[in-house]
Specification:
With 642 residues, the chain is α+β, with helices and mostly antiparallel strands. 63% of the residues lie in helices and 10% in strands. Strands 1-2-3-4-5-6 form a 6-stranded antiparallel beta sheet, with no helix packed on it.
Length: 642
Amino acid sequence: MFRIKKLDIFIAKQFGLLFAGTFFICLFVLMMQFLWRYVDEMIGKGLTLDVLAQFFWYMGLMLIPQALPLAVLLSSLITFGNLGESSELTAIKAAGISLMQSMRSLIVIVCLIAGLSYFFQDVVGPEANRSFGRLLLAMKQTSPELEIPEGIFYDGLPNTNLYVAKKDVESGHMYGIIIYRRTGSYEDQAIILADSGMLQSTAEKKHLLLTLWNGEWFENMRSQDIGGSAEIPYRRETFVHKQILLDYDGGFSLDDVSDLSSNAKVKPNSRILHDLDSIRRDCDSIGREAYSQACVYLFRPGQLTHTDSLHMHNIVEQRAVPRFDSLFSHLQGDRKVAVMKEASRQAQQVSNDLLMRGDYAHYLYRQVRIHQIEAIGKFTLALSCIIFFFIGAPLGAIIRKGGLGVPVIISVLVFIVYYIFENSGMRMAREDEWAVWFGKSISTMVLAPMAVFFTYKANKDSTVFNIDAYRLLVMRMLGLRQKRSIVAKEVIIEDPKYLLDADMLIGVGNEIHHYSEAHKLLRWPNPVHVFFRPGDDHEIEHLYGVLEVAIEDLSYTRNSYVLMKLNQYPIIATHAHTRPFERKWLNVVTGLFLPTGIFFYIRMIRYRVRLYKDLQHILRINKKLIPRVVELGNIKEAEITV
């Protein structure tokens, strides 16, 4: 039975306080990053405080689900990092409480946070996105004269394209103005050129007043050509000062926008699933209609299959299909050209029709993928809260560093990995290059094994971040040589047994001579013996073991010359010269796969040559060290005798 203990309350309180602080920090950072996308829509618009308050409120509601996983990761890291740094985690384990037992209260809390994340995405988020979109559109309509860029045509005005070569932001004057305006239909168009001008909103925010200086007005008036004369009427006007009143509702309104209703972000999952059926039904109907049209245009009755014939029965049997080649051959030259032009026109029309249907079908399929991405994303984002906890809490217990230093760095690195995979998967799924379920779950598939690994290592008290262990592993993999580091001992209780050590070094030298004669290290070994038979070299293991015992005993000497010579002894790899791996099945697999087998075979030959050189180097050191060790041993014996 689950019982709430004081330890659960203590850890939950530590986590809760940190989670509250980190959540608002993460939310603030995300809001500032999100704000840069819309800063141009806010500056210089004269927006009131209540409008800005709504803007930040809806933005915060939209970003809460994204801030929750990062806050869980950072707060769990700091919580268990503080417990480990203050040795409280050690005391908890000493009391017989495992790491998973100490995490159980937080597991319940994080599951509730994941549920809260899904609630915000499915209930609060859609309404916040809809309100934010309506608010953003209204903000874009406020003071449009401030949005006009330099050097490109601006189409934000109704029925008007405006080009400004240069603009004075402080005074509002525009220079080098070109206006392309459609006053009535496509046949009634006007081009206005002006040296300078100014665009201002009226007081009631219902119109725009365009004031122009020193320009010309060219207007096509074809719709007014009632008599149908060959000459197209137009008007040309040169002006020094002219004002044009444009209808434009620039007031601040929050009317419902029809375009936002089709956006998947403003829909809960229940409506997304309902709309998916409608979109798929539209796709199928468009596909069937396009297929029927293609059959009419491309196939003759004799060329259709049985299935196609049944599908085209109502169309084909009601038509008499003549022999077009024979009819075409009886036509006159001018008539043939006319028929070919008409056929080319109809073919182009059919091609355009099919292309339009294809584009629309592509748009609908894209909408299907976007709706699926939004539906699956709500579950994966909620699940990421749990995954981030099982990454942050074990890492905090392993690293044992609290505060905002190391935890922040690790949190940022983990979140960057998550962000890269999440956005890459989303884009690939949206462009139909990956399956939607795979693209939206790739970040979960990458981080879930990390969470399992760190939780397992922390529960077993494994040293995951032992830099020396990784350094030694890399050196072994690359075959890099390690060097001895023997220093003089500050306190020596007992002096080395010099004469016994000298005898061991002499014995090592004799064994090296016998070993070198018995094992031809400079010869190429038999590949079958290397990969498919046991290859432990017990002789070199015994030889190296005796040498290490002598070196360990002599390391307690006070003589600097002996210490210097001891550091010159090489560290020997006792297995690398016989076989690539210690496990037999790995050697067999490596030998059967020829490219890796050749690589490890050459690597083993390199180790055999290095072992030969090391043994010769040991003999040279022994030749210089043994007389000095014997001398120190005789001195010690003489002191004991006296």
